[in-house]
Amino acid sequence: MDIMTNRLDRGFYMYQEEFEKKAIEVLRSGWYILGKEVEAFEKEYAAYIGTKYAVGLGNGLDALYLAFRALGIGAGDEVIVQGNTYIASVMGITMNGATPVFAEPDEFYNIDAGKLEALITPKTKAILVVHLYGQASNMKPVTALCKKYNLKLVEDCAQSHGAKFNGQMTGTFGDIGCFSFYPSKNLGAFGDAGAITTNDEKIAGDIKMLRNYGSRVRYYNEKVGVNSRLDEMQAGLLRVRLPHMDELIKEKREIAEKYLRELHNDKFILPTVREGATHVWHQFVIRCEKRDELIKYLKDKGIGTIIHYPVPPHLAECYEYLGHKAGDYPITEKYANTVLSIPMYNGMTAEEQDYVIAALNTF
């Protein structure tokens, strides 16, 4: 049996008729950029998340870049971010000329809120919280710190669509929530797509201006902006998937619960969920000291795996200029050397999951 780490086609076939109907509708509309589908999706997504505004963008990295730009964060400023995140989180900071200050993660793979205050300096302007793998971060102490030190709070929700902390949706705690709709996400498009959420009318307006070449009125450009517009086709297809989010999340939680219930092997560590947080299981991540051996063992049995992520940003070649070295962030580096994502996707069959469980239990 061959089992991929993720199967995007299953998510399509679940709602094939709806997706195809919407695609034809958009194609026949004759309007493909910043039209009624984008406008409708922005309203519907803001309502789903619980903010006043959502702004559709080209991808998740653009959401991060434009978030910090709209907040006026740039050269000479510092932004605290967890060390074990995907590198796009850090790029959103550095593309604006600001400096990332890395914080170690907690046992849930999210930012360790207890270590943040010691990192705050006069140059600190914001904290970027990443709700990694689909679990909401420990937001109560983070929001308290931001209030105490008058810091901006940005949330990277690229993997946490629908996750909550103490009943509140991720993407609503900070000044701006940044989302990716990359096809593998729980709310995935059929190409690149992204958005920001905010309760601030000015921020929403500024990001709408920046996404469209810095223009609010066509051919009148007040800023040097970018081209980062969620297109009508992706917006339309996201509108099809959005009403199904509760059932999609429910299915992933059932898959995760079965893994947690039936995996029994002391050679790897299973994920845990913080009290007060919910998890939408974008990834099911285990840790194994013999990771390379496990990867090969599973591959020989036809089971795919992915490492999220093998190189922490502070050790990435592109960030050599920051001057970090191996050993600077031991928890981050330990995770990078041991984490492994096993198959987790909507439409996964019981037979497929039983096969994965049996293989892992006999490793």
Write up this protein.
The two termini are 17 Å apart. The protein has 12 helices and 14 strands. It is α/β, with parallel strands linked by helices and 363 residues long. The strands form 4 sheets. A 7-stranded mixed beta sheet has the order 1-9-8-5-4-2-3, sandwiched between helices. A 3-stranded antiparallel beta sheet has the order 12-13-14. A two-stranded antiparallel ribbon has the order 6-7. Helix content is 37%, strand content 16%. It has 2 domains: 230 residues, Type I PLP-dependent aspartate aminotransferase-like (Major domain) (Aspartate Aminotransferase, domain 2, 3-Layer(aba) Sandwich), CATH 3.40.640; 117 residues, Alpha-Beta Complex (Aspartate Aminotransferase, domain 1), CATH 3.90.1150.10.
Q: What keyword list fits this structure?
A:
alpha/beta; 12 helices; 3-stranded antiparallel beta sheet; 363 residues; Aspartate Aminotransferase, domain 1; Aspartate Aminotransferase, domain 2
Summary, kept brief:
With 363 residues, this protein is of the alpha/beta class. It contains 12 helices and 14 strands.
Terminal Cα separation, in Å? Answer: 17 Å
Mean pLDDT: 98
- Helix and strand string, N-terminal first? HHHEHEHEEHEEEEEHEEHHEEHHEH
CATH architecture grouping of the largest domain: 3-Layer(aba) Sandwich
